Amino acid sequence: ELGDYSHYMQKEIFEQPQALSNTLEMISGAGQLQPGIFGAEAAEIFQQVDSVLILACGTSSYAGMTAKYWIEQVAGIPCNVEIASEYRYRHSVPNPTQLVVVISQSGETADTLAALHHAKAQGHTFTLAICNVPESAIVRETALRFITRAGPEIGVASTKAFTTQLSALFLLTLLLAKANQRLSDDAEKAYLDELRHLPIAVDKVLALEPSIEAWSQHFANKHHALFLGRGRHYPIALEGALKLKEISYIHAEAYPAGELKHGPLALVDSEMPVVVVAPNDEMLEKLKANMQEVSARGGQLYVFADGGSAVKSSDGVNVLLMPEHYGLLSPVLHVVALQLLSYHVALVKGTDVDKPRNLAKSVTVE
Ligand code: M6R
User: Fold this and answer.
1) Inter-residue contact 312 to 264 (CB < 8 Å)
2) Which ranges of 155-283 would DSSP assign to H, the alpha helix?
3) Where does the record say this protein resides (predicted)?
4) Which of 87, 105, 169 to mutate to test the pocket of ligand 1 (most atoms within 8 A of CB)?
5) Ligand 1 center to residue 235 CA distance, Å?
6) Pocket test for ligand 1, best of 7, 101, 106, 163 (most atoms within 8 A of CB)
7) pLDDT 10s digits, 268-278
8) What is the pLDDT of residues 300-355, one digit of tens each?
9) What is the average per-residue pLDDT within 106-118?
10) Which of 40, 52, 221, 247 yields a CA-CA distance of 20 to 30 A from 168?
C-alpha cells in the first residue's frame, strides 16, 4: 500500500495535490460558487449569519485559526476560534445567528462532538461540519456539511486532512463574503482560479524536499525549537511546531513573532533553531525586525521566504525560497514545507513516524 514511500506520513504529504484537486473538484469548471456545496439549506443560513464560531482540536483548530484571518478580512464578519475541550465546559454567551463550524478529520473526536452538542443545547441551529469521513458522528448532527476528499489518513500526524480543511474553509470564506455582499464577480473568479492552481503550487513545494531534508540534520540533535509567523501564518507556525513535537519529540513552541520580546526571546541562544514563516506579505517588514532580534542573540534562523521577501542567507540565517508567492492562500503552501521538515527530522532521529508514542489517530475519549 505504501508503494515507493517509506511511511504513510510521507505518502500523505505527497498526496496533497491530488487530495486538494479532489476536494475542489466541484469548482473545476465553475465561474461562480454556489452555497449548495455546503448543503441544501446553506444559501438561506449564510444570508442570516452575523458571525462565526469555529470549534475543533489540535491541527483542525489551527485550520480554524487560519480561517479566522480569511473570514474577517474577506467576508467582513467576526470569527472566533475555540478549542473544543474548553468550549464544551465554559459558560459562553450563545448567539442564534452565529454559524458554528466544527472541524474534524475523523468526525469522531470526543471533545469536538461534545462541543457541538453543547452549542446545540445552547440553542445554536446554524451548524456546519467540515470533515473527512462522510459517515462520521459529527457529520450526522449538523445542519450543513462539507466533506473534504483527502482520502484515508493513516499517519497519526495530520497532513493532507489539514490542507484540504483549509481549502474547504477558503470556499466557506468566499461564500460568506458573497452573502455579505463583499465579493465582486471579478474577485470571485480570481480566487477560484487561485484555488484551482493550488495543486500545482503544492507540487512545486514538494519539489523542495531535498533542501528541506538537508536542513533537518541541523534540528535532530536539538532539544528545543521555536516557530515564528505573523498574521495568517501564525497558525501555520503553530502547526509546524505541533508536527515537530508529535513525531520527533523535540520540544517546539510557536509564537506570533511580535510576542518574542514579551518573554520567549529569553530562550534564544545559538542552540535554539528558530523557524520563520516569512512570505512577502503585509507583515514581512515587522517580521524582519523580529528576525533581527533573534540574530542579535545568536539564534539560528531557518526562514521559509519567497521571491519577493528579500531575506538574504548569511551566517546564522538560512533561507529557503518557496516557489510562488500565494497571497491569502500562502498558508497552504508554507505548511507543506513544515510538514516535510518535521518528517525529515523524525527520520534522522529514527522515531516511529506514523505511530508516535502516546498518541492515537482518533481521540474518541476525553
Ligand atoms: O480528527 P480530528 O481532526 O478531530 O482530530 C483532532 C486532533 O486530534 C488532531 O488534529 C491531532 O492534533 C493530530 N494528531 C495532529 O497531527
Assistant:
1) no
2) 160-179, 185-206, 209-216, 234-248
3) Cytoplasm
4) 105
5) 15
6) 106
7) 999 999 999 99
8) 999 999 988 889 999 999 999 999 889 999 999 999 999 999 999 999 999 999 99
9) 98
10) 247
